[in-house]
Automatic annotation (TrEMBL):
GO terms for molecular function: protein tyrosine kinase activity. Signal peptide: none annotated. Residues 206-294 form a coiled coil. The chain crosses the membrane at residues 33-55, 369-390. It comes from Sulfitobacter aestuariivivens. This is Capsule biosynthesis protein. Residues 1-20 are annotated as: Disordered.
Amino acid sequence: MSEPAPPRVPPGGAGVRNVKPVAKPARPRRRHFFLFLSFLAVVVIPAAVASFYLWTRAADQYASNLAFSVRTEEQSSAIELLGGITELSGSSSSDTDILYAYLTSQELVSKVDARVDLRDIWSKPGVDQDPIFAFDPDGTIEDLQSHWERKISIVYDSGTGLIDLEVLAFDPQDALHIAEVVLDECGEMINGLSQLAREDAISFTREELESSLERLKVARKNLTQFRNRNQLVDPAIDTQNQMGLLTSLQAQLAEALIEYDLLQDTTRESDPRIAQSERRIEAINERIASERRKLGLGDDEEGDAFADIVGEFEGLMVDREYAERAYNGALAAHDGALAEVRKQSRYLAAHVKPTLAQKAEYPQRTKIMGLWLLFAFFAWAIICLVYYSVRDRS
């Protein structure tokens, strides 16, 4: 037996319930066609074009990897070794910073291009086949430097001072050759820095040494000219000889005076020995006066006195001694600077030699397509959001 039907509630009665309206079937509208067409234009078609280019036109590229750093060897002295103060190896961050800047410089690009012909190596597929990854051989040096930054990947760790390079080329041998030349040129640049540092370290001491040597030559020349002019080797010795002669004359004068006094006491005034003794005393006095004038002790000086000659000689000797001491000090400083320079040796240490690739790893087609689709989809989504936002506000 069937159940009785529920009672019908009359319209407008107390038992009326709200009934939800039934949604109409969805139909394509114009905005849906706009979304579909925009998705095709922004995502699908560019992705298809990029995929076609990457898998049919883009040439394979091979990578050669190398890594190096700038090292400084400092050989400690024997005293430092005995004291336990040793620091045999270290890296110079400033030199590595200079090398990092040099790796992206136009100078290095020009040098490497002159040695390996980068224009020919990076334009092998031809710009007609691969206009994106191939280089136009008719480009300028600025174009080549810009393409260098695309083909040479540089990773610099400022904390450790290590530099990693990845060199790309359309042939593995070309990539290896470029990496070897880059390593060679960087080594020459570091050697140039070392030579410049050595010159800076010893240039001042070398100038001081040359100046002191010239001063010593002048002092010795003046002393030689003085000796030739006065016919004296050492005026001090001649002065001592003159003083000895003067002392002897004074002793002879004393004897002559004593003899003269004795003759006066024991003989008559007419005795010829008294006149002879007087002449002897007079001659000795004249000789003593002459010798005193030579020594600069007399009142009436004739010519250059020995005192003036000795004074001039002593001044020249002081000049020579000062020049010798200055020269010895400059020579010691120069030798010390040379020894310090020899203790420090800066060089480029390659802990990863340039490698030879066996398969092409570039261009990374799957990665490029994934990133392209991701960014294209985000761009399409943003365009759609902007469109609906403007539509809802209008």
